[in-house]
């Protein structure tokens, strides 16, 4: 369905109108096209915080058909990881919204540290129905450092803290060691997820 795109000055455009592409292009300062399907050949420009800028094709080439997610169907992270980052880097706000997860999992009492690091290769079951296969830790780029919807302010220290405290091999990228928070998952069994459902790692 069409969506309404709003600008801070009160202007707006409807996504299926003839003006959407021109308005967006003017805003970002280069020609862009709003589309509902990804092109046949896709690349993803990602800045490795420890290296120079480079174009990485790996993730773009394995996007799921008909989707614009970087890679997997689901991205999840735990409140334990967010709390651990906060304890390691006081004064930095590691709110979940920075990382744009599909699911934020409230960790049980006593669960501390980057708990989902140990989920890679395992199955996460939620409630009575849903099961995900966890494939990779989620590598982080510069996006979580940027200002985002909901009053999240720009803070470049976010990525620096992740680089310092949680660098992991990412199977998706030939086990390249990258700063990571959260994990990627693929659906093994669909169903309904409800707030308060029990999470099991199998």
In short:
The chain has 202 residues and is an alpha+beta fold. The chain folds into 2 domains: 1-36, no CATH class; 69-201, M1 Pyruvate Kinase, Domain 3 (Beta Barrel). It is built from 4 helices and 11 strands.
Q: How would you summarize the topology of this molecule?
A:
Elements: E1 4-6, E2 12-14, H1 20-28, E3 44-46, E4 54-56, H2 58-61, E5 74-78, H3 79-88, E6 103-105, E7 123-126, E8 130-139, H4 157-165, E9 167-170, E10 176-189, E11 199-201
Parallel strand pairs: 5-6
Antiparallel strand pairs: 1-2, 3-4, 5-10, 7-8, 7-11, 8-10, 9-10
Characterise this structure.
This protein has helices at 20-28, 58-61, 79-88, 157-165, and strands spanning 4-6, 12-14, 44-46, 54-56, 74-78, 103-105, 123-126, 130-139, 167-170, 176-189, 199-201. The chain folds into two domains: 1-36, no CATH class; 69-201, M1 Pyruvate Kinase, Domain 3. It starts with a strand and ends with a strand. Strand 9 and strand 10 form a beta hairpin. It is built from four helices and eleven strands, in the order E-E-H-E-E-H-E-H-E-E-E-H-E-E-E. The chain has 202 residues and is α+β, with helices and mostly antiparallel strands.
Q: Largest sheet, if any?
A: 7 strands, mixed
Count the domains: 2
Q: CATH H level of the largest domain: which superfamily?
A: PK beta-barrel domain-like
CATH topology of the largest domain: M1 Pyruvate Kinase, Domain 3
Task: Please count the helical segments.
Answer: 4
């Amino acid at each position: 369905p069409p969506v309404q795109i709003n600008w801070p000055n009160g202007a707006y455009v409807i996504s299926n109108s003839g003006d959407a592409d021109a308005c967006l292009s003017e805003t970002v300062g280069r020609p862009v096209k709003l589309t509902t399907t990804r092109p046949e050949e896709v690349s993803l420009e990602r800045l490795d915080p420890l290296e120079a800028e480079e174009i990485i094709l790996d993730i773009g080439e394995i996007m799921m058909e008909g989707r614009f997610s970087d890679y997997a169907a689901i991205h999840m992270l735990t409140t334990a990881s967010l709390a651990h980052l906060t304890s390691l880097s006081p004064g930095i706000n590691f709110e979940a919204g920075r990382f744009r997860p599909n699911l934020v999992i409230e960790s049980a009492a006593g669960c501390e540290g980057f708990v989902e690091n140990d989920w890679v290769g395992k199955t996460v079951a939620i409630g009575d129905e849903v099961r995900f296969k966890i494939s990779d830790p989620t590598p982080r780029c510069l996006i979580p450092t940027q200002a985002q919807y909901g009053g999240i302010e720009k803070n470049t220290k976010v990525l620096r803290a992740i680089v310092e405290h949680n660098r992991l091999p990412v199977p998706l990228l030939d086990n390249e060691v990258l700063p990571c928070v959260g994990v990627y998952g693929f659906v093994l069994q669909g169903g309904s997820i409800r707030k308060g459902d029990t999470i099991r790692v199998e």
